[in-house]
Predict the structure.
Amino acid sequence: MSWVLEKINSGLVRVFLIVVALFWLVPTIGLLASSLRSPDDMSASGWWNVFAKPSQLTFESYQKLLENSDITNSLWNTILITVPATVLVVIIGALAGYAFAWMEFPGRDWWFLIVVSLLVVPVQVALIPIAELFGRIGLFGTIFGVILFHVGFGLPFAVFLLRNFFAEIPRELLEAARLDGAGELRLFTRVVMPLGGPAIASLGIFQFLWVWNDMLVALVFTKSGTQPITVALQTQVRQFGNNVDVLAPGAFISMVIPLAVFFAFQRQFVTGVMAGAVK
């Protein structure tokens, strides 16, 4: 009898989770349906009517989107910002995490404590001072300046996560590699990096999602010509409040790319975060 109750409870939990997931996906489905409808259809009825009238589906909005240079350039700017900011945080964070976990140097624990304490610094506190600094050195309004800001604020979490993960690697394994003549660089690339795959993947996903979806930093540090997709869509709303045929497909593209990345690597994300969260 107990196993029957367990089966029923398990089935109810699965049904509940599926319902929650469907509700969570409703805005995405609605945005997709809106992006595939004409402006006249969108003004006449809600997006859910597309299921009753599939003939409303059209790719004209996406064609107009590709003809809008502001949106296409901003999408390219988003890629130029997100990819380097993610790669640099992963590489520097992995090197620093390995150093804090397995290399001996003066003040190691104190330096790590300082790095961890930076996690509590809000982004909003640094916006104005760094904007003034970038203005003096000529980086304000450039893509490189936005990348530097994201790298600087992404590194404390990266070092914290990867250091805790690397510290769980058995010491005997590293000592055996050293006895075989492996130096620190070879030890890092051949032993530590492969073993740290889940944590590195989760860090990359986390950083990618944060940078891609960022609007506050981009709104402060970019200008016309360097704006990412989030700022460009906001600008389109302000200037042309009725051009939903451009905003809907642009917003869907901006949303679906990080969603695809997360769902493709969600298992590695959960594994890495859980492994690096505790020592």
Summary: The mean pLDDT is 80. The chain is about 80% helix and 0% strand.
